[in-house]
Design goal:
20% helix; two-stranded antiparallel ribbon; eight-stranded mixed sheet; STM4215-like
């Protein structure tokens, strides 16, 4: 069974490693908390647990235990990642290039090491969207930020007792 805590920990660990930011500067969005010091990254779930196709297509597998059946559920989950760059000032020397920092994070998703770490949590990268500088779009040019949408695929498994038929009574007698 999938563990959302494990999945979110793996994604936060990736974001921290790929951005080079402290754990306190990688936040799950929609939290009731003060904005961290810049630069920082927010992670927000979009559609979660979207079925891939028809639920009838979930794969049914028999198990080695009589009377049980395993069902594998294939799902996709979207995640929005936003990078808020440091505000450029003469004193800080910050560059303020959110797009470049987000691009570095996206490139890390293409490495085998990152893919292997996410796979341990049960995630496969399905789609990496096109990153965009959303500063002007959101009328926040003073607040440089870039965003990208990611889509992850998971395969969850459920095992259930379906029972066995030990005897059948029919018009011609009993079959065991």
């Amino acid at each position: 069974m999938l563990s959302w805590a494990t999945i979110e920990q793996a994604i936060a660990a990736w974001a921290q490693s790929a951005s080079g930011l402290a754990a306190s500067n990688v936040r799950w969005g929609l939290q009731d908390a003060p904005t961290p010091e810049r630069p920082f990254v927010t992670l927000v779930w979009g559609a979660r647990d979207m079925q891939l196709g028809n639920p009838v297509r979930d794969e049914k597998r028999t198990t080695s235990t009589a009377g049980t059946q395993s069902i594998v559920h294939f799902r996709t989950h979207s995640l929005s990642v936003q990078y808020f760059a440091a505000v450029p000032t003469a004193a800080s020397g910050a560059s303020g290039h959110a797009s470049a920092a987000l691009g570095q994070m996206i490139r890390s998703l293409q490495t085998e090491a990152t893919r292997a770490q996410l796979l341990v949590a049960g995630l496969r990268i399905a789609t990496i969207g096109t990153p965009a500088d959303v500063s002007a779009l959101l009328e926040t040019s003073y607040d440089t930020r870039a965003a990208v949408d990611l889509e992850f695929a998971t395969a969850d498994q459920t095992t259930e007792q379906v029972g066995t038929i030990s005897t059948v009574d029919g018009p011609t007698g009993t079959v065991t």
